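Lecture 7 notes: from sequence to structure.
We start with the chain below.
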Amino acid sequence: MRYKHFKNADVSVSALAVGTWAIGGQNYGQVDRSDSVRAIRTMIDQGVNLVDTAPCYGNGASEKIVGEALRGIPRDQILISTKFGLITDVYSGEYIKHASYKSVMREVESSLMNLETDYIDFYYVHWPDVNTPIDETMAALNTLKKQGKIRFIGVSNFSEEQILAAEEYANIDVQQPPYSMVNQKFTGLMKWGYERGIDSMTYGSLGSGILAGAIRTMPDFKPGDMRLTFYDFFREPVFSKIMEFLKTMDRIAEGHGVPVAQVALNWSTQKEFVGTALCGVRNEQEAAQNCKAFEWKLAEDEIAALDQELVRLNIGF
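Predicted structure tokens for the same chain:
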């Protein structure tokens, strides 16, 4: 496993991290709880030291699975990242962005209980809440730091302007934007943050699974599946473009004797402004294969070939 040193947080983090959106079991395909626990433990056995989750991933289900997976592992060997501020409305079922002081204090206690821990390493504002003053949200986070319930403050899906506004009231240690070969829209934000010591944990690192190479024909996802509603990778014309791009990935993967997912992970994590790539896994086999990506690296000419093809097909920009 390769590691990167996060500047503001002053901790070393594995270049690959466990992403747990899918294992919440809500609108993300079939998930087996036992397989998920074993997958997380497999990644930790391979040197991964960060697990990222959120209470809204299955209404607490993901956090509880993470808590179960981490039982018996010395707490100081694992970095736990979770979030707050995205709450499911009990009447409509829709998500509400709510990051008031009172709500933060309520959510953190729930997450601590679900995760079976006394503290959270990275605590993120999941999405900006335009109805709550940012100084109120940051005051809650500063209080939690003083109480020892969180170690580092993070923001997810924030713009430069929103990060600067938050920095007036608290030190921002990390950010979490989407980033992969097929989604490079926030490259500038990540580079800007990196120069300020705000390292990035990227989500969607395998393009919601499309860069794993297993899907080669348009899938028949159920209505409401997050892979259809949150991303455009599984809709035309983007889907066909990515299928064409996979031919270049196939050629490079074949040259190294590896699955194409490892090409995608190296392309991302070999960039200095990518702190760690969050990667969802459903079983031990996927976990082990993804970790093996860090036993080799892409050559500069291979990265150039991939970048040229992305530009030619106009994917991800």
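Points to note: The first strand starts at residue 3 and ends at 6. The mean pLDDT is 93.
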